[in-house]
Amino acid sequence: xxxxxxxxxxxxxxxxxxxxxxxxxxxxxxxxxxxxxxxxxxxxxxxxxxxxxxxxxxxxxxxxxxxxxxxxxxxxxxxxxxxxxxxxxxxxxxxxxxxxxxxxxxxxxxxxxxxxxxxxxxxxxxxxxxxxxxxxxxxxxxxxxxxxxxxxxxxxxxxxxxxxxxxxxxxxxxxxxxxxxxxxxxxxxxxxxxxxxxxxxxxxxxxxxxxxxxxxxxxxxxxxxxxxxxxxxxxxxxxxxxxxxxxxxxxxxxxxxxxxxxxxxxxxxxxxxxxxxxxxxxxxxxxxxxxxxxxxxxxxxxxxxxxxxxxxxxxxxxxxxxxxxxxxxxxxxxxxxxxxxxxxxxxxxxxxxxxxxxxxxxxxxxxxxxxxxxxxxxxxxxxxxxxxxxxxxxxxxxxxxxxxxxxxxxxxxxxxxxxxxxxxxxxxxxxxx
Length: 433
Ligand SMILES: NC(=O)c1ccc[n+]([C@@H]2O[C@H](COP(=O)([O-])OP(=O)(O)OC[C@H]3O[C@@H](n4cnc5c(N)ncnc54)[C@H](O)[C@@H]3O)[C@@H](O)[C@H]2O)c1
Hints:
Blueprint: H1 20-52, H2 76-86, E1 95-99, H3 104-115, E2 119-124, H4 132-144, E3 148-151, H5 157-166, E4 171-174, H6 188-208, E5 214-220, H7 244-263, E6 267-272, E7 275-276, H8 285-295, E8 298-303, E9 311-312, E10 315-316, H9 317-330, E11 347-352, E12 358-359, H10 360-371, E13 376-381, H11 396-402, H12 410-426
Parallel strand pairs: 1-2, 1-4, 2-3, 4-5, 5-6, 6-11, 7-10, 8-13
Antiparallel strand pairs: 9-12
Helix pairs in contact: 3-4, 3-9, 5-6, 6-7, 8-10, 10-12
Bound molecules: nicotinamide-adenine-dinucleotide.
GO molecular function, one term: UDP-glucuronate 4-epimerase activity
Enzyme class: isomerase
Catalytic activity: UDP-alpha-D-glucuronate = UDP-alpha-D-galacturonate
């Protein structure tokens, strides 16, 4: 008899009986107990195997539709790809984890870093906020230049920890986020998931890493919200966000302050101003105006109260990339190690804009000339769904400290965008409806 057979189900209450009938019942009970025990052990083993398997990352915690996915990662071949992608190939090179690498800005920054010999590893969850086939095409582009994008979510701390175990990243270029101002009214949870929970999850891993990396991350011009003082300077007020997107970016800036203060993480926030260019984002006006003008569909152009002009400080992607590289190259090391601060660390924030706002109606005129098609303009009042009337960056701080000098005017940049658009979508790919 095993020790199990003698164990009372309720300790102290069970009394051994001696009758043969009781013996028989006991034996039967003990077989049942054994069977139940081994069934549970077996089930447990299956569950442990399933969740611990190196080829299956744990489920992300976000309940939103897009995040209910498992990602395949792990195993020796996967680690080899991670190491090879992140290997530094130039003297004084850096090794960078780029989150949101399959995104618009992430693809361009990753390619630029790789070109100069830095080690680059991408991370992206390939969500379907906009056509994921465009993200896959960007992934294929990066793959050809030797950049591997790990498929996973920034809230997956097991995956992040693993990446830092495999590679001692010197820098993190954090671009993964739920972008877009209007979509925040449709799916607010996705902004909280990626821009707040995701950022904290990433910083938690960075603070515990040894060595801690320096982090450069994308904030946004939207933090200026209802600020009316122009041009927008870094010291202007940012406490009146006009959208949940803006509020999550502002929260990111405060979270950055906290991790810098407590853990000695070196953190640089970049406030991008309406970035555009080849491989851009289909949810942005210059992109869907192009699509709709070509289809002969009417486009909505917003104007503010009293026929006020709506204008944007459109910034060409190559200029933004230079700003990102400038921020990475001037970032000082984090000062903490293993979760402990050793001294004060760098905390910065910069505007990256073009510093010459253009009315949206002028953007449409440029597109008309480049596409050789007249747009069907539908002038509408600017709705109160998060968009602000104008943006205009003061970039003197970035110029002074990062050597940032935007060179591309809207006409030149849109010409490059239109050339890419026509070749990309005439290649058999369909611009999403
Ligand atoms: N493009 C602009 O005009 C602009 C302006 C201001 C700020 N920004 C910021 O710059 C960054 C890059 O923007 P973009 O235009 O390249 O956007 P994008 O949507 O093209 O790129 C973001 C990428 O992050 C990924 N991602 C989102 N949530 C994720 C998560 N939880 N885990 C892993 N990956 C995730 C997406 O799949 C996407 O590929 C974002 O932080 C954005 O908020 C962009």
